[in-house]
Each structure stands twice: as C-alpha cells, then as structure tokens.
C-alpha cells in the first residue's frame, strides 16, 4: 500500500510483474470476483475462465451469453443481482 501511495501505481513493485486484465480473468484461481467493470466476461472469454467459483461484484460484469456459459461451467456462479446490492438499492435504505 505504501508503494502505491508513494508512486500512484503498483507498476514497478519489486517482485511483481504486470499482467493484462484479460489474462488476469482467465488465470488459474479458485474464486473470481469481477467487481469493477461491466461486460468484462463475454462469449469470447467465458469458456477460458478456470475459476470454480464466480461471484459478480460489479453491476453486470458478464454478458447474457457469458452468464449461460458460466452457469454450465462453474461449480458456483453467483450473478450480480444476488451478490451486489448496488449503490442505488443500498442508498434507499
């Protein structure tokens, strides 16, 4: 955290290497939580996802076709409508 604060980025952090976000989505992992951007999981990359568990933290991080692929492929696919209350919903409470 200190490195990021001082440099404004994590690029160049000793012992780490940069990885494009499209590679990050399909890397080996148990749990994948796309939690920042819409439509990052699509029909082009959904079949390549290796995570057993996919929990959608962002609003709509998957396309409709990707949702269908993940429903068949992942051990657990928790769509954003269940995993993310959303800012608007939470702000009404």
Mean pLDDT comes to: 89
The total of beta strands comes to: 3
In spatial order, strands of the major sheet run 1-2-3
* Bulk shape: globular
Biggest pleated sheet: 3 strands, parallel
Strand fraction equals 5-15%
- Structural class, by secondary structure, is alpha/beta
Q: Low-confidence segments, ≥5 residues, pLDDT <50? A: none
Detailed description of the structure:
This protein is an alpha/beta fold and 93 residues long. The chain is 33% helix and 9% strand. It has five helices and three strands, in the order ααββαβαα. It has helices at 2-7, 21-25, 64-73, 80-83, 87-92; strands at residues 31-32, 53-55, 76-78. A three-stranded parallel β-sheet has the order 1-2-3. Helix 3 links the parallel strand 2 (53-55) and strand 3. The radius of gyration is 15 Å and the shape is globular.
């Amino acid at each position: 955290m200190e490195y990021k604060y001082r440099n404004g980025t994590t690029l160049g952090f000793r012992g780490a290497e940069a990885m494009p976000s499209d590679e990050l989505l399909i890397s080996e992992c148990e749990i994948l939580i796309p939690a920042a951007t819409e439509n990052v999981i699509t029909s082009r990359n959904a079949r390549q996802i290796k995570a057993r568990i996919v929990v959608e933290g962002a609003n709509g991080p998957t396309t409709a076709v990707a949702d269908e692929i993940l429903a068949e492929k992942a051990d657990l696919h928790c769509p954003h409508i269940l995993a993310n209350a959303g800012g608007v919903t939470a702000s009404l409470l």
